[in-house]
Amino acid sequence: MSFTLLVLLIAYQTRWVYPEIHAYFSQAGNLTGQQLATRSRDYLQESLDLLLLDPLDAGNRQRAHFQMELAYSLFDIGLYRNEYSCTQPSLAALDELKVKLRSGESVLVGDLRNSLLGPIRCLTEIEMHQLDRRSSVTSAFVEDTRRHQGQVLFGSVVIFALGLVFWWMHERHRRSAERATRESLEWMTRALSDPLTGAGNRSALHQDVLACEGQPMGLILIDIDFFKQYNDSLGHPDGDKLLRNLAELIDETLGGQARLYRMGGDEFAALFDCADDGVLTGYCERLVAGLREAALHHPDHPSAATVTLSVGAARFIAGQAGFDAGYAAADQALYRVKAGGRNGWQVAQVKVVSSSDLNLEES
Ligand SMILES: Nc1nc2c(ncn2[C@@H]2O[C@H](COP(=O)(O)OP(=O)(O)OP(=O)(O)O)[C@@H](O)[C@H]2O)c(=O)[nH]1
């Protein structure tokens, strides 16, 4: 936009200002009219000087005649004849004098004054008038140039200001778009995460599985044993603290390679790329070992002094059907651990050739 305005300003300058400048300089009459009159007057002055020196001397008369011819040719132009009334009588007086000089007729000093001083006065008048005209043309040109410069300066300032305004509007728009994107990202993150532990929620797990469509994945379901008793004995705030600590512990234990989710209550899930059962077994063992090492005190555990977990795991091919089957298998494995007295882990064997032929087998 600013660029367009700048181009228009330049076009205006080229179209309107420069032709005006040319027009001023092409007024040859105004600019040279004074010079012709000056030169013509000089020739007449020389002619007068020669004749006053000795009006009878043939050489003087001849040279004076020559000077008069020169003066005459510069004096006898349309501009002077049309605009200055003294021109015609002056040319006539010069014609008369030239005839006298050519014919050898005697020329009186009084005649000289009438014949030459008149034209000299006329030329002086023309000279003065042309000078005035030239200076008025020049000052009009200077004034117009100043006005145009003012217009260009004003235009440039306006264009600069418009540029600033457009930049500011663009910047404002960009910032508000950035803020909206950031807010919607934050909102989406909040919508997909558990506010207590910061882990993902059930929707996030679902979304992540679908994003890995077709890949072999591992799923571990983790449930705290006797968490109700923990809460009852230490209170819910401590129960919350345990949930947060466990989320961190599981994350660290799995080496940050698994994504962690809180499925609700005291149940967590871990999801990771998993090409074979060895990886799944390895993760379960690391979990149990990590928890044992942390030795988190449980004041009301019926069979242990520390917090224990029940873990069920399964492999599956990512996708809706594969996940449903894998989740059900891991959940059943977890149930079997609970039923078997808790504090342990089990891996459900699932055929993972394709999502259609997933098949549960107990490990
Ligand atoms: N502190 C706290 N407790 C919660 C939260 N969500 C659920 N609970 C509690 O977790 C407990 C879950 O109880 P149960 O489902 O019986 O599980 P459990 O006591 O661990 O028993 P088992 O799993 O059979 O060993 C309940 O007492 C819930 O009140 C929470 O966000 N914070």
UniProtKB/TrEMBL annotation:
Enzyme Commission number(s) of this protein: 2.7.7.65
Keywords: Membrane, Transmembrane, Transmembrane helix
Entry GO terms, CC: plasma membrane
Residue ranges of every copy of the GGDEF domain listed in the record: 215-350
Catalysis: reaction(s): 2 GTP = 3',3'-c-di-GMP + 2 diphosphate
One Gene Ontology MF term: diguanylate cyclase activity
InterPro entries for the chain: Diguanylate_Cyclase (IPR050469), GGDEF_dom (IPR000160), Nucleotide_cyclase (IPR029787), Rev_trsase/Diguanyl_cyclase (IPR043128)
Cited SMART domains: GGDEF (SM00267)
Single Gene Ontology BP annotation: cell adhesion involved in single-species biofilm formation
Membrane-spanning residues: 152-169
A Pfam family hit: GGDEF
Enzyme class: transferase
Name of the protein in its database record: diguanylate cyclase
Organism: Billgrantia montanilacus
